[in-house]
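Weekly puzzle thread! Below is a chain. First person to post its structure in C-alpha cell form gets bragging rights.
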Amino acid sequence: MNLIQTLPLLNQLAAISFRIGLLDLAWLGLVFTGSAFVLQLTMAGAYRGTANRFLALALSTVVLYALGLLILPAHSEAFTALLATTGPLVYFFVKKLIPQASALHWRDGMHLIPPVVAFCLPACSGSVVFAATAIYIELSLREIDGYHHRLEFTGGDRYRDELRWLYHSLRNFGRLWLLWLPFTLLDYFDGTRGSGIDGYLQFLFAVAFTRIAVTVCLKQTPGQRLLRRPAPTAQVSTRAAWLKAAMKSSRYYEDPDLSLNLLAGKLGLQPHELSRMINTTLKKNFNDFVNEYRVKAAAARMRDSAFDHLSLLGIAYESGFNSQSSFNRSFRQVTGKSPVAYKNSLKKELSNYDLGSRRPFEPLVLDQKPNYGRMFKHHFKTAWRNLKKNKVYTILNIAGLAVGTVCAALILLWVEDEVTFNHNFKKHNDLYHVMQNEKSDAGIHTNGSTPGPLAAALKNEVPGIVNSGRLSWAMDELVVYGDKTIKENGLYADPSILEMYGMDFIYGNRGTALNRPGDVVISETLAGKFFGDKDPVGRTIKMNINGSYSVDGVYTITGVFKDLPANCYYHFQWVSPYRTWEDANTWLKPWSNNLTETIVELSATASPASVNAKLKNYLGTKVDNAVNQLFLFSMNDWHLRANFVNGLPDGGTIKYVRLFTAIAMIILLIACINFMNLSTARSEQRAKEVGVLKVMGAGRTSLKMKFISESLMMSFLPCYRRSL
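Winning reply:
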C-alpha cells in the first residue's frame, strides 16, 4: 500500500472523536491485566500445565469479551455467546487440577454444546451463558467436594484444605453470578430498567473471574517431590536412606494425623513393608521414628527468632504434635531436656562480642481483626515508593505500557469507526441497496444504477419488502440566498427515504417535508451558513443555477435535519423531492434507463436470501431480452465490502480493518511480554525483599496484595498524563 492509498485512512483516523469513559478505561486495564496472566498461565512450566492452559483459555474468553465491548459494541451478542465456553473450561481446569481425578475423554466434548447453542441462537445467548456458567460452577464445586470426601479417611485436615481456596473462590463467584438473574429479568420485561447498571455488573463479573486466575497464578508453586524410590532388591541401607530423605524433603511429619497406612500410601509402599523397614533397619517403632523428625523441627523453630512470637505449644502444633504431653515426652526423650529448659538454654547462648540482651519481638494480638483498608493503603504506598526507587525500571515499564496501550487504543478506535459505518441510521440492519450485475464480453460489471420504476414495483410485487425509495446521484449545485452563494453537495430523493433512514429533524416535519415538488430540506450546517440560529422553515432559496442536469428554480425550505456523522456513506447538505428531478428529466421514467439508485427496507421476518432469489431474474419480467440480474446489498456492507470482481464480492476496506486489528493485538501482546520480561528480570532482586518480609512476619496474603497492588499501579499509571 503506497502513501497515496494510506492518506485516506489517516484522515479517517484523525476524524475519530475520543469517546473514552471511565468504564472504557477500566475495561482496557482489565484487557491488559487479563492478557498478561493468560500468557503467564500458558507459558508456565510443566507443573499443572494442562490445567493452567484450560484456565488460560477461560480467561481468554473474558479478555475477548472485554475487547468486543470496546471495539465492536454493536456485535456484543456474538462476544456474549463466546462467554458460554467459560463454564466448561473452568470445569475442565478443576478436573485436571484435582489429583487422581477421572481423565478427560472425547465424550467430554459434549460439554461444549452450550457455546454452540449460544452462537446458533444469538437472541437467547445471554440466558444460555447465565445457565451454563451457573451449572458448571456447581459441577466444579462438587468435584472439589468429592476430592475432599475421598481424602476424609486417608489424610489429615491439612490435605483436605489443599483446594479450599479454590472452592471458596468459585463459590463466591457463583454467588456473584446470581446477581445477573434479576437484571436479566428486568431487561426481559422492561429493557429500560436493567440496562443502565448492566455494564458495571459485567465488569464486576470479569474482575471477579480475573481475580480467580490471579490467585491460581500465585498458588502455582511446585510441591516437594519425593526422591526416586529404590528397587525392592536394593540394599537395606539404600532403602533406609531413601526413607529418611523422603521424610525430610516432603515433611510428612507435620501432619498431626499421620499414620502408618497414610505414610505408606504417600510413599507407594505396603504398610507391612514400611513397618518392617522402620523396625528392622532403623530399630525404631513408627511413633518414635516420626516424633524424632517433629522434635528436630520444633528445636529448629526455637532457634529461629522468626518464631519467638509463638508459644512452645504453638511451636509443637506447627511441628506436627497434637498434644502437649506427647510433645514434652518426645522432646525429653530425644534431647534429654524439657522444652522449657531447652528454650532457656538458648537465651543464655549469647556471643562474647554481644553481651547485651536481645530485644524481643512485639507481642502478636491474635484476636484483633486486621484493618484491610489500612493494609490496602499501605500496599499502594510501598508500591509507589518501590517504583520511585527503581526509576529506570519504572520508566521503561511505564513507557512500554503507555506506548503499547496508546497505539493499540488508537488503532482500535479507527477499527471501531470503520465497523460502525452507517450505524447512525436506526434501520441499518434492514436497509438494502438494489445492485445490478451487467453481463458483457469483458465480464460481469456490478453497479448500483437501476431503472426508475423499480422501487414502486418491488414494494408492490415482492413479498418481504415493506418500503422502498429512489435516490439520484450526488450533485454539487449552487445554492443562493440573498447575496450569499454557496456550492453544496445534495441529491433528490423520495419522501420515503427520510423515513427509512430515520433522519432527525431540528425544524419541520419529516413526514411531510418532501411532499411537494418545490420543497427542499437542508442540513444543520447549511442552515447555519445562511440563517444562523434562526428557523429557516418557509423561506425560499434558489438552486441549480446553470448546473448539469439541473432543475433551476426557487425552492421552499420545509425542514432542517441534523448533520450526518463522519462515518456515514452519505454527506449531502440538501435533499429535494425525486419527482422534481424526474419531471425535469423525463428520460428517467422508462424501464430501459438505469440511472437511479433504489433503496428497499425488508421486514423483520423476511429472509434476504429468499428475496434475492426472486430478484435474480426480475428484470426479465419487465424488459424484453433483459439478462441483467438484481441482488440486495446490505447497508452494513456499503463501506467495508464495496468491492466486486466479476459479479462476486471481493472485500474492500474490511481487509484493512482486519490488518490493523491484528497489528493492534500484536502491539498489545508485545507490551504484555515486555512487562513480564522486565518483571522476571527483577525477580532475583525481589527474592531478598520477600525473604526479609517473611522473616518480619508477613503472610502469604500480605505478599500477594503487595505485588498485585504494584502491578495494578504499574498498569494504570500509563492512563494518566502525569509522569514520575
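Puzzle host: Confirmed. Bonus trivia for everyone else. Residues 163 and 607 are 52 Å apart (CA to CA).
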